[in-house]
Amino acid sequence: MPTSTFVRLSAALTLCAALACAQAPEPDGAGVEPGVLPAKWATGGPNCKELPDWEVHECNPDFYILRQSGCTHYEKPFLYLLFGKDKALLIDTGAGKPGTGAIVSQVLKRWLERAGRPSIPLVVSHSHSHGDHTAGDKDFAGKPAVELVKADPAALQKAFGIGTWPSDIGGIDLGDRLIDVLPIPGHDKASVAYYDRKTGVLLTGDSLYPGRLYIRDWEAFAESTARMVGFIDGKIVTHILGAHVEQRAQPYLDYVVRTAYQPEEHALGLSRAHLLELDLALKALGNKPRKVAYPSFTLWPREP
Hints:
disordered N terminus; 6 helices
């Protein structure tokens, strides 16, 4: 059998096996809390005077997505705020001069009023260490009832009980809400993914999103992607949500770097199939990094 045929057959068998593990017994919601993603985001225009600095979307009463406006920073990162009975978890803090503390305080206040509670401890962590995801850290450092976890492998290991980096998996219990924390270096040495068992959402930061997947350590990135595929084996994955949208709705086409206004952008939510596509693409390329465009993302090797 020709090698190319064998590779395609092996990839097809892997895909079929993984999709089988994505099944649920009945079409009854698969036992996870439902949530709704927005059909469209405001991004950064066309008139910045009419847009707030942050767009806040309530997926469900305990899961919020915050997007920084392109009018304040072209990266337009997504932040995630999850609530349990005992703690809340914020993932990432924004880019530039984001004013993240103020908008998070507003969401916390809204949640507390609805829950009839005076306060809730907040854990602030990150998808990785780059500045467009950590710029708002100063708003939380040293604040009462706030634990700020540095975007560093050693700090992440300690905070989330991760044994050996990057092969082991850690986690955090927010109170009747378990979040698995997976080291996924490759884009950055401190990249991690978060899996919310309540909603079946996998948060992948800059390692998988609709756009340019900048890869600084090709081997580590491929290994991390394969570990994520192994992790979701047998688990319900409702959505895969990254930290940006750079892709257009039209397949194989992105917005150029520093675009603030993206009126025809790709949806934020990806699926298990996109992760499998990424894994198969990396396996096919092996140890030969190169730029390759796919319908919803582009592999983009960078110098370490």
